[in-house]
Amino acid sequence: MKGKFLISAVTIINEGRAFVGSVLINNGLISMVIEGIHHPNTIDGAGDAEIIDGHGKWLLPGVIDDQVHFREPGLTHKADLFTESRAAVAGGVTSFMEMPNTVPNTLTQELLEQKYRLAREKSLANYSFYMGASNDNLTEIVKTDPRTVCGVKVFMGASTGNMLVDNPQTLEGIFKHSPTLVAVHCEDEETIRTNTAMFREKYGENIPVSAHPLIRSREACYKSSKLAVELAVKHNTRLHILHLSTADELALLSNKPANAGKRITAEACVHHLWFSDKDYSRLGTHIKWNPAIKSVSDREALLAALLDGRIDVVATDHAPHTFAEKSNSYFNCPSGGPLVQHSLVAMLEMSREEKLSPAMVAEKMCHAPARIFGVDRRGFIRQGYHADLVLVDPESPWTVSSENILYKCGWSPFEGQTFHSKITHTFVGGHLAWRNNNFDESHMGERLLFNR
Ligand code: DOR
Question: Is 109 exposed, middle or buried (0-12, 13-18, 19+ CB in 10 A)?
Answer without folding.
Answer: middle
